[in-house]
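Please describe our next protein:
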Amino acid sequence: MSDSTTASASPVVLEAWFDLQCPDCFQALDDVRALREKYGDRIDVRLRHFPLEKHKHAYAAAQAAEEAAEQGQGWPYAEALLARTAELDGRGEPVLVELAGELGLDAEEFDTALIDGRHLLVVDADQAEGKAIKVTGTPTYVIDGERLDGGKSQEGLRARIEEIADRLLAG
C-alpha cells in the first residue's frame, strides 16, 4: 500500500513492514510522520504487511487496511488502527469494521471484504516477500535495498533512514 498516488515519481521509496496489531509499529508511526514531514513527496512510504502469528487479528487487520486503501484511506486507517492495538486484541475483528465507519468508509463493504477474502492475495504476497528478504519482526524498513530491523529496538532507525534518503536525493 503506497503513501501517495505519485509513487513512481518519488525518488525515494521506503517500505515499512508492519503488523497492524503491533504496539511497536504504533510507536514507529512517529518516525514515519517525521520522515513524511521532512521529505514530503520526495519519499513514498509503502505499507507492507507482515502479520505476526502472535497477533491473532493482524492478518484480518492487514486485509482491512487494503480495503481502506481501495476506498482511498489506507494510511489514515492503518494509523488509526495502530492507535487501537489493545482494543483490537481484546475485541477482535468488529473493531476493524467499526473503525471503517468512524472514518467515513463503507463499513458494509469492509465486512464483505473480510468475509470474501478479496485482499488475501496481497497480504499473502507481502508476507511471502517479507520472509524471502528475512523480515522476522515488526517494524522493519527497507530503503535502497537495505533492511533495517526495528523489532528489537527502533533507536537510531530514523537517522539511518534519513542518511540513506539524503544520499539518494543528492543523487
Notes: The helical segments are 23-39, 58-70, 74-82, 85-91, 94-102, 107-116, 120-132, 157-170. The mean pLDDT is 92. The first strand starts at residue 12 and ends at 18.
